[in-house]
Amino acid sequence: MTALTDLTLAAMRRGLAARDFSATELTAAHVAAVEANRHLNAFIVETPDIAADQARAADAALAAGTAGPLAGIPLGIKDLFCTKGVQTTAGSKILKGFIPPYESTVSGKLLADGAVMLGKLNMDEFAMGSSNETSAYGRVISPWKAQDGSNRELVPGGSSGGSSAAVSARLCAGATGTDTGGSIRQPAAFTGIAGIKPTYGRCSRWGVGAFASSLDQAGPMARTVEDCALLLTSMCGYDPKDSTSLDVPVPDFAAGLTGDLRGKRIGVPREYRLDGMDPTIAALWDQGLAWLRAAGAEIVDVSLPHTSYALPAYYIIAPAEASSNLARYDGVRYGQRVTPPGGNLGDMYAATRAAGFGAEVKRRIMIGTYVLSAGFYDAYYTQAQKVRALIARDFELAWQHCDLLLTPTAPSAAFAFGDKADPLAMYLNDVFTVPSSLAGLPAMSVPAGLSLDGLPLGLQIIGRPLDEALVLDAGLAIERAAGFTARPGLAG
Ligand code: GLN
């Protein structure tokens, strides 16, 4: 029999409904997997007692016929989501010991649908990073190893690296992620799983630690497209507590999945064909287009002329918003406080922030403060906002010629720790994910193939605003055609 931890989320639902196993058994199997894989450092906090209680409640609901759509499904929650009564740190020392008195809307919706929380997943500090090396709780190690004889430890991607490592290592059926410039899609690609960032405003940001509010979106990460669709349906929905939340109907994304792309046009943005692109990734991209053609789609060339300005604009806008958002961590209201002897209030703020924030967060706060300062606002921030509008218009014009875009998710497979010590080299890893974030569009990464040394590679599908359903259909078509069955070697 297949191990319970190996089942897809959809198969878990069927097994629970058929009483093949109980939610308590399913949860116990995952708790054991979490314990056996602690060396990955995927969780900051494990919550086995909460999980056991929730599993018991799910079993009772299943027996009574009152079970929600995710009853008994074991999930990990990224530590950016406030969880009532359970420490939430955003991967930062400054929030060590912070126990929220409330639940984020998104995690609350998953729990209300019956999900079981296994714990809080490690992440880059305040979601700033692409490798999980910026977490104050230690780096997350990818369960994958390159088949190059080196045995080097690899990054799981970031910032949702605890989520990607835990889902790919079968420690949970699915996980929440957040994506500001690629933090769901790039870690999904690095670990051979699927992940979707919905349209900006689909998922409530209420109770989610703010990085760059005009870009931040929550979304699911899971091992199949259908599993992502099941989680997304639960996570989305209008929330009056988030002023940017969209008051639009939420389709049943899983029930609507067909994988049928007949009559759809897939755009290939020519500016994404970078000079010196990894030939394996270029070939996989062509293969992906062939798969979508076989699923009934027509392939068309499109142009997104402002693509090369997306990264510079993002690395002005995101730090600007971060510097403002992170001003709230002042030692007064949340988490840690450092009081220098004889110091005044300003000294307390300075000492708290100096001790509480890591190097990458400080770098972003300084960049953000600089580009918002009186002398430089117009030169940097205003210009970046104009570029953002041009990038959004590029996509709007492209939608006159196509229904979806297909691109690689990342320019490389997972790299080793320390390989991108230069922040700029790290930022370049976001080249394919950032433009759609700036435009607020739904975008998904699906595992599609392997690098020459056996590491997962993802393809990215970008859709029109609110067209997650078609993005998921293309994801399903790629998933079916790719037949991606590779998996990491696991302990336990
Ligand atoms: N890697 C990008 C950054 O560091 C994206 C992070 C994210 O999406 N949260 O800003």
Q: Which range best describes the helical content: under 10%, 10-25%, 25-40%, 40-55%, 55-70% or over 70%?
A: 25-40%
**N→C terminal distance:** 17 Å
Name the strands of the widest sheet in spatial order: 1-3-2-4-6-5-10-11-9-7-8
Mean pLDDT: 97
3D shape: globular
Number of helical regions = 15
Stretches where pLDDT is under 50 for at least 5 consecutive residues are none
Bound molecules: glutamine
**Class per helix and strand makeup:** alpha/beta
User: Strand content of the residues, in percent?
Assistant: 5-15%
Order of helices and strands: HHEHEHEHEHEEHEHEHHHHEHHEEH
Strands, count: 11
* Major β-sheet annotation: 11 strands, mixed
Radius of gyration: 21 Å
Q: What key phrases describe this protein's structure?
A:
492 residues, alpha/beta, eleven-stranded mixed β-sheet, globular, binds glutamine
Task: Give the topology, please.
Blueprint: H1 9-17, H2 23-36, E1 43-46, H3 48-64, E2 74-78, H4 105-112, E3 116-121, H5 161-168, E4 174-179, H6 185-191, E5 194-197, E6 217-222, H7 225-235, E7 265-269, H8 279-294, E8 298-302, H9 310-325, H10 345-356, H11 359-372, H12 377-398, E9 404-408, H13 423-428, H14 434-438, E10 443-450, E11 456-463, H15 468-482
Parallel strand pairs: 2-3, 2-4, 7-8, 7-9
Antiparallel strand pairs: 1-3, 4-6, 5-6, 5-10, 9-11, 10-11
Helix pairs in contact: 2-3, 5-6, 9-11, 9-12
The structure holds glutamine.
Residues 127-130, 159, 179-183, 211, 318, 430 line the site of glutamine (GLN).
